[in-house]
Amino acid sequence: MKRFSWFNATTLTLGFAFLYLPMVILVIYSFNESKLVTVWAGFSTKWYGELLRNQEFLDAAWVTLRVAVFSSTIATILGTMAATVLVRSGRFMGRTLFSGMIYAPLVMPEVITGLSLLLLFIGIGLDRGVFTIVLAHTTFSMCYVSVVVSSRLSSFDRSLEEAALDLGCSPFAAFRLVTLPIIAPAVISGWLLAFTLSLDDLVIASFTTGPSATTLPIKIFSAVRLGVSPEINALSTLMIAIVTVGVITTSLITKRASVAQQRDEQAAARAT
Amino acid sequence: MNLRRFFLIAVPYLWLGALFLVPFVIVLKIALSDIALSIPPYTPQLDLSAGWEGVRSFFADLDFENFTFLTTDDLYWKAYLSSLQIALISTFVTLLVGYPMAYGMARAASEWRPTLLMLVILPFWTSFLIRIYAWMGILSNEGLLNQFLLWTGLISEPLTILNTNLAVYIGIVYAYLPFMILPIYAALEKMDDSLLEAAEDLGCSRVTAFWLVTIPLSKSGIIAGCFLVFIPAIGEFVIPSLLGGSGTLMIGKVLWEEFFSNRDWPVASAVAIILLLILIIPIILFQRNEQKQREAEG
């Protein structure tokens, strides 16, 4: 028996109001006619128009998107490999260092990661720009991917893969035909996590970028340092809308996929 | 060892080694160097063309001068202390706000729980920068909070909240609240309710049962949540620079300014090294807690 009282209902209402009100207010004020962001002067979508005509923002959005797609894709491949190593490879030389390097970036302050990568890029004389941001983002997001994927891998029934090997699959074919479809939801959520982390990152990108590449968070940060602006409100609203739609769709899809998968796995387990 | 396994281990290993481990060695090296008016702006440079003599004189020129400098200029240790203080207080407040929410979620009807969980996770996917920015419009002198308070008549003068430490506390609690709720909720959800009933049957009041049964059983979640808030809060940069004022001292901000405004790379590196040393203890404690939990479950 679970007890759910008025006290719980009140704390949940207040708590979620605290979490969501600031964003709701931001969204409402993005439709404000007035340039003064704290005074309501009627409904208007003109700031969205201004935003779409602002070439600097569009360029920055394009840079950010490219960085996010490349870094999250490489990070997903490397992170899945690292997860396989962590869960499957048993003992090897330097295993402790390996798992240390996977977990350390998760708790490392961004300023330190950014500073150290910048000093590396300068040390080896690499021109800073989109390429260096991709390297930096891949490095920290592959660690998140490997944590997500390894939790799925460790709960996965290895005998399925062994059966494939016994039936004459090559190790790679067994991975592609058996393991990968089963860990796919984790790989996909790892990719999404890496993608959002990259879209979101201000500090590491600021350190590792050069004059040729400005990402959206860098652009937003330099704009909001001067104060609140209706254009940024409009941009934020668009980003919040995209994230909300994205999260809800993927959670519905992965939920359906994982239910179907559990059914398949159980059927397979019964068959063996 | 077969080639496939070697390849599988070597690729992520080399990647992390080159882009995570090597950069740290470089930071350590530059922290021991001196600032110089050159490109890059520090000395000594490793001169391999001079052979062994070059390596020897390179190591001879490294010293702890920057670390001594950090202890003499009180800006730095004040920044470390105030980062610790801000992180501690905001972690505590986050716990006070997050625990009742996690508790309420765990007590909600089971068909509601996935939705509530999603509502906690959703802000985490939304841009951190935007969520902090949202508070700038609320907390400013002409902002909505002041307008609301003036309208209710609770205050007659607008309160100055933005650009003070209070705004930084609000920002940290707001931004990291999901990190506190999720592990506590995970611990509370697993809890067996018959334990509470047993405690009450044995004569506990509901409040005592809560203190003696629920809190201890959710301890691992509380510890995990506190570390998940405390560790990133110490090195936080975005929150103090957008919501804090000139009087807000936080080490992430100091490091940023030392690097970008003063262009003093050796001192910035030394600041980073000390910050890491401060963080190592909570990180190790956090890992232990996670490991204990895994063992308890496995």
From TrEMBL, chain A:
Its main location: membrane. It is a multi-pass membrane protein. Residues 61-253 form the ABC transmembrane type-1 domain. The chain crosses the membrane at residues 12-31, 67-88, 100-124, 130-153, 174-194, 232-253. Keywords: Cell membrane, Membrane, Transmembrane, Transmembrane helix, Transport. It is found in: Cell membrane. This is Putrescine/spermidine ABC transporter permease. The lineage of its organism: Bacteria, Pseudomonadati, Pseudomonadota, Alphaproteobacteria, Rhodobacterales.
UniProtKB/TrEMBL annotation, chain B:
CDD domains: TM_PBP2 (cd06261). Signal peptide: none annotated. GO terms for cellular component: plasma membrane. The keyword Transmembrane applies. Residues 80-286 form the ABC transmembrane type-1 domain. Pfam families: BPD_transp_1 (PF00528). InterPro entries: MetI-like, MetI-like_sf. It is a multi-pass membrane protein. GO terms for biological process: transmembrane transport. Its main location: membrane. It comes from the Bacteria. The chain crosses the membrane at residues 7-32, 79-103, 115-136, 166-188, 209-234, 265-286. Gene3D superfamilies: MetI-like. Keywords: Cell membrane, Membrane, Transmembrane, Transmembrane helix, Transport. It is found in: Cell membrane. Belongs to the binding-protein-dependent transport system permease family. CysTW subfamily. This is Putrescine/spermidine ABC transporter permease. It comes from Puniceibacterium antarcticum.
